[in-house]
Amino acid sequence: MTGQGQEQEQGADAMRALQGLEDGRSSVRLRAALVLGTAPEPRYVDTLVERCAVEPEFFVRDMLTWALTRHPVSVTLPALLSELRSERPQARSQALHTLSKIGDRRAWPAITRALLSDADDEVARSAWRTAVVLVPEGEESGLATVLATQLGRGARETQLSLSRALVALASRGDSALEEAVLPALRAATKAPDARVRTHALATEQLLRDPDVGFEFAVGEAKRIVALGGSGQEGR
Selecting from 1.25.10.10, 3.40.50.880, 3.10.350.10, 3.40.50.300, what CATH number does the domain 8-134 have? Predict the structure, then answer.
C-alpha cells in the first residue's frame, strides 16, 4: 500500500472512531477511544474532551483520558483548562482527572479554591487528587489549609478521598511536608462541628500510621470526640 493509501485508510479509521464515540454500545465507544489514542491526532482533542463530559461509563471515560494523554500537551492543556469552567459537573471532574494524569504543573493556577470546595462531591474529590499532584514545592502548607476546610464533608467515600489526599500531600518524599499538613489538621480537631473534629483526628491517625485503615481511624476518632477530647492531650 502506498503512503497516500495508508493515510486514507488511517483517516477512514479515525472517522469511524469518531462516529463510534456516539454509539449506544459502551464496547464500541471503548474501542473508538482506544483507536483515537493509538493514533493521536490533535484536531480530535476537542471531540475527546467533549465526550468526557457526557460519557456515562467509567471505564470508557478512563480510556478517553488515556487517549488525551497521548496527544501533545500544548493542545490538550488549553482544552482541559477551559472545561474547568464548565457548568457540567462531569466535565469539570473528568478534566481534573485528566490533568492529574498529564501532570503538567502549568495547570496549577487553575486549581482554584472554588474547585477544591466545589458543591459537587465528585468534582471536589477530583480537585483534591489533582491538587496534590500539581502543587508546586513550597505551596503545600497553603493547600493543606484549604483542604482542611473540607473536613467533615460528605459521606464515607468523600471523607476517605480527602484523608487520602492529605496523607499523600504529607508524604510527597520530604519529611518536612508532614509538618506542613499537621497544623491544619490539629486546628480542625478544635472545630465546633463534631464531624470535622472526628474527620481531622482520623486523618491525623492515618498520617501517623497509614496501615490502621480508615474505618478503624474513624472509630477511634469518634471515641475521642465522644469523651470530649481533641486527641492532642499530652502532646
Answer: 1.25.10.10
